[in-house]
Amino acid sequence: MLFNSIDFAIFLPIVFAIYWAINRGALKIQNALLVLTSYIFYGWWDWRFLALIIFSSSVDFFVGKALSKTSVKHKRKTLLLVSIIANLGLLGVFKYYDFFVQSFVDAFTFMGVNLESNSLNIIIPVGISFYTFQTLSYTIDVYRRKLEPTNDAIAFFAFVSFFPQLVAGPIERATNLLPQFFKKRHFDYNKATDGIGQIIWGLFKKVVVADNCAIIANQVFDNYTQYSGSALALGAVAFAFQIYGDFSGYTDIAIGTGKLFGFNLKQNFAYPYFSRNIAEFWRRWHISLTSWFKDYVYIPLGGSKLGKTKAIRNIFIVFLISGLWHGANWTFVFWGLFNALLFIPLYLANRNRRYLNIVAIDRYIFSLRDFLSILTTFCLTTIGWIFFRAESITIALDYIKNMLNASLFSMPYVFRVGKLEAVLVLLFVLIMLSIEWIGRRKKYALSFSPNTNLWARWTVYYVIVVMIFLFGEKQQDFVYFQF
Amino acid sequence: MKKFIVHISVFSLLVTVTILAVFSRADGHSDQFYLKLTGTQKSNLILGTSKAAQGIQPEILKKHLEVEPFNYAFAIYASKYGDVYLNSIKSKLDTTKSDQVFIVTVDPWSISSTSKNPNDIDTFRENKSFLNSVKEPSNSANYNYLINHFEGNYYNILSKSSPAFLHDDGWLEVNIDNDSTSVANRTLFTINDYKKNLKKYNYSSARLSYLMKTIEFLSTYGNVYLVRLPIHPELMDIENTYMPDFDSKISEAISSSKGYLDLTNDNSGYHYIDGAHLHKESGAKISLRIANWIKELPN
């Protein structure tokens, strides 16, 4: 079920009404309802893949329980391995098997040896990378004794499958989300209206900004050999805003929906396009994934405590895995590598933690220096996105080569995109960036304080909803669903 | 909770009223198909894909043939000959009238399919199109279409700035830059599109049989005239490579109709907006030519 679909517009109020109607009853019933509705939500795509979520949840629930019963080191390690193998095994089979087999066959073909390829041709289950990482965090934290294992199976299954963030994050840590299933939840008007506001803002970013940018980006990327340098640059910039609007929009809808049910999900985007270098960008983009890799990969590998050489190795590993996490294609690996190459010089120059606060935190407007840094970071990120979006590394390199010539300074022309459409897309991006700039110190840009005049708040919401209705493109899939 | 429900209900009501107000303003500027799927049942239908939708002007036929034609042609992804298009035609056609004139346009693509098995009608692309979903194309307002299938965004309903305008008689008038560079750019895109998509298409005998069924159905209410519209010479070469025996493939359809007018012999005599679709001035010429041809045919 897509957040931007009529199905979800019917599903959400029904679940909301039943959920709060049973508020006076047992917490367990409320949690059970969340499990049931989450499975319906997920099964809407393909009910067969529900078995994977149930399997993954069951393994980690029982591993958690078993971990609580033993303090023998090697037994605990074995239990952790069971969880890791089960979860990464699922991911390996469903997401990466064909990719690795094909890469293996290609490598041999390159050396002149022809091998038969035995691809499984399996459809990748929606959101598998998200929920396996989420449930894996539970067993790792229990293993590390950072979290008490739970005996409440319903709460645990609800934690793994919680529908607002099930298919595209934020990847919640058990330490943050799981305890919320144990506490009685009370309806809070301010929290619920704040949730509605965040859903509206997320929908605006998705259906107005991202889906309109997608028209330009798809047209250009799908026919890149036919476009001038300026049109290719426009296509790349359009994709940069498409992926941001799409993914951060999804996150806002997820967090807003969570609030409607009394939950607090973690912030996943913190205005990444206002970053002044790549290191800052990665602290602000897909925060839940970056911090997951930091806590469960980078630090266990030694982080930066074992000297610069090993730290560089660890940075490479994290970026390469992060790239591969996004998709079973060398383009994503290359994208990870590209970002690592941008990050490492900052690390070596000790500038990777230079910008910890949001830009111009105590000013209204950025300085010229800030502006140039933001622009440079955006351009570098956008070049990275070309690898992310292109179908192969060769195409991405070809795209960049075609972009960087004299025609880069000509007027861009994109087939099937009229002047009015192009101006509107630009306007939507500017509206989003302006609102984000104004609200950059908040958890999400459109949030209001509870003291804000009711009429003022609802008028803003009304204007944005009307914009969503008038300018929104029809029910497009979310880009990150494929991951 | 009560306060929340009241506020959210009022807000939703306000949004719903706004949506309905916008929908009520939908007209020929809004979308390329909406008007064809509303209003009363129509007679004297012009059928085919977007080439016919833009290329044949009912107003000109009306002047010369003394009938009131309605252009019920849509797009290649929706109105190739098949079950879906035939059912839609059956719903739209005013069957109370006899001696009607039907112009059925044909080309290799209208009897081809992109499905793996080109004769498996369950996998035809139009099954997922608006034409299959809209079962009653003669309602005064078609909310199903507006909500689920409206092309582009709803701002077009208010802005009326679309370069395309759908006339009440179903003709889709397109007014886009007609300078030689723009036309050349668009034509190049279409040629590349054709070349790219060529591999996906296969001749479909199932579609041909639906073309026959369509002619058979229409013949009950009048005369059917088959027309092949002109296209840019380079696209014609692609069509000829793809289906060199097109005329012999449709020979049965030709003999079941009142006549067959192949206008591709004169491809370079017309202007196109993108190689595939006629410019409106050439469309007017073509419409006049079709009208004269029909008039000259023996009864």
Mind explaining what this structure looks like?
The complex is a heterodimer of chains A (483) and B (299). In chain A, 44% of the residues are buried. Chain A folds into 2 domains: 6-186, no CATH class; 190-276 and 355-482, no CATH class. The model of chain A has no long low-confidence stretch (mean pLDDT 91). Helices cover 65% and strands 0% of the residues of chain A. Chain A has 483 residues and is mainly α. Chain A contains 17 helices and no strands. The longest helix of chain A is centred in the first third of the chain and has 38 residues, at 73-110. Chain B has 299 residues and is α/β, with parallel strands linked by helices. Helices cover 44% and strands 11% of the residues of chain B. Chain B contains 13 helices and 9 strands. Chain B has helices at 2-23, 50-55, 58-65, 83-92, 130-133, 143-148, 155-159, 180-198, 205-219, 233-242, 246-249, 251-256, 280-296; strands at residues 45-47, 70-71, 100-105, 112-113, 164-166, 172-174, 202-203, 222-228, 259-262. In chain B, the strands form 3 sheets. Chain B has a 5-stranded parallel β-sheet. A two-stranded antiparallel sheet of chain B has the order 4-7. In chain B, strand 5 (164-166) and strand 6 (172-174) form a beta hairpin. In chain B, helix 4 runs parallel beside helix 9 and helix 8 (180-198) packs parallel to helix 10 (233-242). The N and C termini of chain B lie far apart (75 Å). The relative contact order of chain B is 0.18. Classes of the chains: A mainly alpha (483), B alpha/beta (299). Chain A binds chain B through residues 6, 20, 187, 189, 192-193, 196, 212, 223, 226, 413, 415, 418, 420, 424, 458, 461-462, 465-466, 469-474, and chain B through 1, 3-4, 7-8, 11, 14-15, 18-19, 22, 147, 150, 152-155, 158-159, 161, 163, 185-186, 188-189, 192.
